[in-house]
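hey so i finaly got around to running the thing on NAD-dependent epimerase/dehydratase domain-containing protein from Trapa incisa. pasting the sequence first so u can double check i didnt mess up the copy paste, my clipboard has been acting weird all day
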Amino acid sequence: MGIVRTEEIRREEIEEFRRMLLSCAAVHRRKDEECLKGPRAGVWASEGDEQGKAVCVTSGISYIGRAIVNSLLLRGFSVRITVDNQEDLEKLREMETTGEMETGRDRGNFRAVVAKLSDIESLSEAFEGCRGVFHTCSFADPAGLSGYTKSMAEIEVKVTENVMEACARTPSVRNCVLTSSLLACVWGGHDTDDELPSVINHESWSDESVCISKKLWYALGKLRAERAAWRIAEERGLRLTSICSALVTGPQSCSRNPTPTIAYLKGAAEMYASGLLATVDITRLAEAHVRVYETMMNGQTASGRYICFDQVVDEADKAERLAGEMGVPLERVCGSSAPIEGTQRRFQLSNRKLLGLMSRVLRCCFEEDNGMADARRFCQ
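ok and heres what it spat out for the 3d tokens, dont ask me to read them lol
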């Protein structure tokens, strides 16, 4: 279900993933040397885990997945990732056996397994022993040419249902964080409904009929997948949060995350005119995932949906910079001509809920670093 990329791009991503793991080496304590024998040898760090520090990231070598894994390792988590096939797993094992990974630090904290996203049993086996699951993947165009199609939206919904069902069937899993999209919030029939609130926040949902009529298949896929996740979570008693991400930016984001990027930009000109086109840096997005999970893990108040963005593209210079970064014509971002004043309704995006959670977490960390043992009580 992951992106089938060219060999060159795949090699670049594996190399980036290797550097990412090496960069984490200096911040973790030494693990049992027996864990250095290989991914399935010895005792993985999840056994006996009582603090929720063992987690699984689906499609962990995807663009978003790698960033989340990096952030988790830096925070001291034991991370298991799922990969799509044996080839990807073998490439990761090569990194671990060439000596490049012989740091003696992280090998006990990281493991990769093959799991079919179409197979609930396969997913449940991958999740076994993990306290939390980050579901990050989206189905992508194998050829990288046609973009995100309607059939891909249907598959994305099914995959999300499989992941949620696997979480429900795995006794160790307590919390799940779903990577959704801001597109699941912003397409609400703005042109026809003057009754709509002027602020788009975590309570806002896109309208399926609007997505279908405009052929916004990526928005439709994310919308239906998130709704399916919430339905199963409620039915099966799972603790779920969702991160509704803006357009992801960062180093080589378009070349390494092509299908979601191209698909997100469909309808960008209309979002720009409405004040709803926003971006988020990949590192900040990953940090938001981890902070939300840590709040869930610690029994605090993280719940529901969180909108995640760090910039609204609402001016011509911002649109020009985004077009340059994405490598697309400016018209793709903001349209060929400016809207006539007064003819386009403007909205405001709000990520206040996520900012509130992040500020509480940062206060707790600051106070704990200063020796305040009961900091969490004051931060709640």
